Amino acid sequence: MAVPLDHLALPFFNAEHRRLANALAAWVPLQQVDERDDRQACQQWVRLLGEAGWLRYCVPAEFGGALAQLDSRALAILRETLAFHSPLADFAFAMQGLGSGAITLAGTPAQQAAYLPAVARGDKIAAFALSEADAGSDAGAMKTVATYQDLKPADDHNSSNPVPAVTLNGSKTWISNGGIADYYCVFAKTDPQAGTRGITAFIVDATTPGLDASEHIEVMAPHPLATLQFDRCHIPASAQLGELNGGFKLAMRTLDIFRASVAAAALGMARRALVEAVAYAQARPMFGQRLADFQLTQAKLGEMAALIDAAALLTYRAAWLRDSVGTATPVAAQAYTAAAAMAKMTATENAQRVIDMALQMHGGMGVKVGTKVESLYRDIRSLRIYEGATEVQQLIIGKSVLKTLSAATHHRA
Questions:
Q1: Considering 88, 103, 121, which residue would you say is the last residue of a domain?
Q2: Residues 381-390 pLDDT 10s
Q3: Spatial separation of the C-alpha atoms in residues 101 and 212, rounded to whole Å
Q4: Catalytic residue among 16, 132, 387, 391
Q5: Catalytic annotation on 132?
Q6: 225 and 136 together in one domain
Q7: Range of the domain at 297
Q8: 46 and 68 belong to one structural domain
Q9: Whole-prediction pTM value?
């Protein structure tokens, strides 16, 4: 089943984006991945995406990437197309980007050289570890602590040569790729009394003693999730990622890059639901006609198409805004953040409605395990929560509106 590509004619995209979309749309359906074991399937998708060169869009060209810098429109196209065919393939791709994004933004040259080329090849699976049991949207409430100290190597009996190190204690949960990742970008408190201003990021290799990622989390749409436990987990001070106590800003900058791409993934799922609904309506006989011949069916299909297009325009606008205007100035950054929040909120909420209508149109077949609309119904639900729940996006947009319109009103006065 082919992904619709008519939207590529929109002026948000250039010839390179159109070439990318057509090439990926031809490649994805040819891949054969058994997704009954989500962990094995995710590892296989990373390998396939790496071998085919698609993961090169997750890192800059300097480190083996496809483009000079991360391109939000390319990320949107990739995620929308992958999600249309396989939400798990989209997940595998997205986590390579999210799990390496902080290294791209703030890593030292040594850190970037050690991790980014391997991410682009699919040789290292990446993960982003921010959330905790009591610190999801409220990152400042995290309790995982990083303590700086001097440690003596186990094979060094000369106590006068201590090595600067960091010790992590605490836990992270709802960590995507938990248990299969080769490394984690971990955010921890380095100043426990400073809230979000006391958080620092670190790169922690999966084999580091004191890190336990064996507690897997089962969810309604299976994909690799785990709780990470840090018990006197020692890492070198050189593992610090970005500035001391600058971790919260780094996390938000990383999430901002990929927020519009979450909207694109929702679009891919919604487009697939519409295609499935049209195919079913045209094939389903009912009262001497086809289901598609009824005006009520046509009205529903029309509503679904409008919801998708509305979300698509917001999504592509946000991606275009970041690529074209950038985020270097406070005004540009605020504009992009608000646009990305609008895209993420609208696309995920609209996709939920579209998929629900497609399932309803399928009747009993819609809730049969194994049908595409049934799996889409489970897949879409988490997108309204992760990387900033809908309610968080509403707050971001509301604050932006207050700031922008208040400034405009004051200027006119």
A1: 121
A2: 999 998 889 9
A3: 23
A4: 387
A5: no
A6: yes
A7: 248-412
A8: yes
A9: 0.93
